[in-house]
Design a protein that fits this description.
This protein is mainly beta. The chain is built from 5 helices and 26 strands.
């Protein structure tokens, strides 16, 4: 019994009596730590501990509005020691509502900021305290909901506001390229082959006037000339070439569907072209045995009903002069 009383005294010394909430347990009351240990009739007890923790808030000491090229900048000024403000931007009709949590207004004159018609397109800017720890910024547009973006700042909360939300850029209109790589007209995206297409505008922009220029704008296609001659070209598609003079060509060359059985003799001035199609990989099913490496399709422009005249002149080293011309004239 003496040992039990000693344990009760130690427990009573450790526990703070004020932290015990007295509860009725039948006909007996739990008053002390000794009661908790010694009384068998005690059914429950409760410890009351301090649970309230003061939440730190940031004081907004000033509100400033500056005009910008896109609209205005709204600045909520805070002290250097305070935490950074985190806004929640929510559009509501013509109003742009920005709520800032864990913040209070501490303006010098009054506990609210309001400015009418700061810029064209914005009717009102109002900053007010909505509860003990929250600030609400309301920006009202004349006809549309304004837009706001957060501007990085080391101390203050800076919002870049424009009178109306920026319109989403329209998706660029897709350009459909029609090719005849598989002997029929189809979209280049539907061709089940590795293909490079140089359209008319691309040929003009890249100044493509020869097969050397085509090779320079096509991956895995190389073409070399022997000396200054325009004949006996050596080409290579994916490593397959016509280096052996007596063998069949590894690639097929076609001009308006007319085959050139030996590409080394191909001499075409690429002046008036609609497009150039280069297919890489075996194409023998549609183009015959001379298409193990690939096919080069050259398609010239079709005649029109308008009179057109195009010239090309070039001058290079060793007095190299080249002149080309094409004429389109309707006959009726």
């Amino acid at each position: 019994m003496e040992q039990t009383q000693a344990v009760a005294n130690e427990a009573e010394a450790v526990l703070d009596k004020d932290s015990l909430t007295h509860k009725e347990t039948g006909k007996q009351r739990v008053n002390t730590a000794a009661d908790l240990i010694l009384k068998d009739t005690a059914e429950f007890y409760e410890l009351t501990l301090p649970t309230h923790i003061a939440q730190k808030t940031t004081e907004v000491t000033g509100v400033e509005i500056d005009r910008t090229a896109e609209g205005l900048e709204l600045i909520l000024e805070t002290t250097a020691e305070s935490d950074k403000l985190v806004p929640l931007i929510l559009p509501e009709g013509k109003d742009l509502v920005i709520e800032v949590l864990d913040a209070t207004l501490a303006l010098p004159e009054r506990n609210e900021f309001r400015q009418l018609n700061p810029i064209e397109g914005i009717e009102e800017v109002r900053v007010s305290q909505i509860d003990a720890t929250s600030i609400r910024v309301t920006i009202t547009g004349n006809e549309r909901t304004p837009a706001a973006e957060i501007v990085p700042s080391s101390q203050n909360l800076v919002l870049s506001v424009s009178p109306q939300a920026k319109a989403q850029p329209e998706a660029a209109e897709s350009i459909e390229v029609i090719v005849t790589a598989d002997k029929r007209e189809e979209n280049v995206q539907d061709v089940p082959s590795s293909i490079t297409v140089l359209g008319e505008q691309e040929l003009e922009d890249a100044r493509v006037n020869s097969l050397n220029d085509v090779a320079g704008n096509t991956p895995n296609l190389s073409l070399f000339s022997f000396g200054d001659s325009r004949y006996f070209n050596n080409y290579s598609i994916r490593g397959l070439s016509n280096f052996n003079f007596v063998s069949r060509d590894a690639a097929g060359f076609f001009v308006d569907d007319v085959p050139y059985d030996y590409g080394s003799f191909l001499d075409v001035d690429l002046l008036d072209l609609a497009r150039v199609e280069v297919l890489r990989g075996p194409q023998s099913t549609l183009y015959g045995r001379n298409a193990q490496a690939g096919v080069v399709n050259i398609i010239t422009r079709k005649p029109t009903n308008d009179f057109e005249f195009k010239t090309l002149a070039s001058y290079g080293e060793f007095n190299a002069l080249d002149f080309q011309a094409s004429v389109n004239a309707p006959f009726s």
